[in-house]
Write a structure and sequence with these properties.
Aminopeptidase; 145 residues; 7-stranded mixed beta sheet; binds coenzyme A
Length: 145
């Protein structure tokens, strides 16, 4: 059974693995603990019978603006509406807190994700040359709430 949850310290290793598999980045477990303690309400996880299959980690960057730092759904669970559920929940929670803007960065080559975000109303506001570690370019995208 799928359940939408918040941060769970027992799932941090799975978060590290999901990030490694999908973004080829090695984040320390501490990063997740720190972010969850600073912004507990900006962490959204999806479990399938208790197994982490996706998560969204956000942060507050100004009193009225939040930023999505990590958003990922496990490969075997994509195109089932899980990303939509997590992002819609993040948007609803942000609105409830009177947040006015959501910002994120995405690789310019990540057509899937860009299309997905545009469906929610996100728009590209800036190109970020060589933004990523592999020197690929990024887009900064914003959603006005
Ligand atoms: C971007 C990402 C988080 C989306 O997650 P997801 O769970 O696959 O998203 P959804 O299933 O809600 O939506 C994806 C597509 O499936 C479609 N879909 C949703 N529910 C569906 C269902 N029940 N049956 C079939 N298709 C469905 C959606 O309409 C959407 O199609 P579209 O993009 O053509 O409009 C996921 O692809 C991912 O983790 N990508 C790799 C990491 C990444 O790029 N993250 C973003 C970096 S900024």
């Amino acid at each position: 059974m799928l359940t939408l949850e918040g941060f769970d310290p027992k799932k941090v290793e799975s978060m590290v693995s999901l990030v490694r598999e999908n973004f080829k980045k090695d984040y320390s477990k501490d990063l997740f603990f720190q972010m969850a303690s600073l912004f507990p309400d900006k962490f959204i996880t999806m479990m399938d019978d208790g197994v982490l299959i996706g998560f969204l980690m956000g942060t507050l960057i100004s009193p009225k603006e939040v930023r999505i730092l990590i958003f990922v759904v496990d490969k075997n669970h994509r195109n089932m509406g899980i990303g939509t559920k997590m992002l819609s929940t993040f948007i609803e929670k942000s609105r409830a807190k009177e947040i006015e803007k959501i910002r994120l960065e995405v690789k310019t080559t990540n057509e899937n994700a860009i299309k997905f975000y545009k469906k929610f109303g996100f728009r590209v506001v800036k190109v970020l040359p060589r933004y990523y570690r592999d020197h690929s370019n990024g887009y900064m995208m914003y959603l006005d709430l």
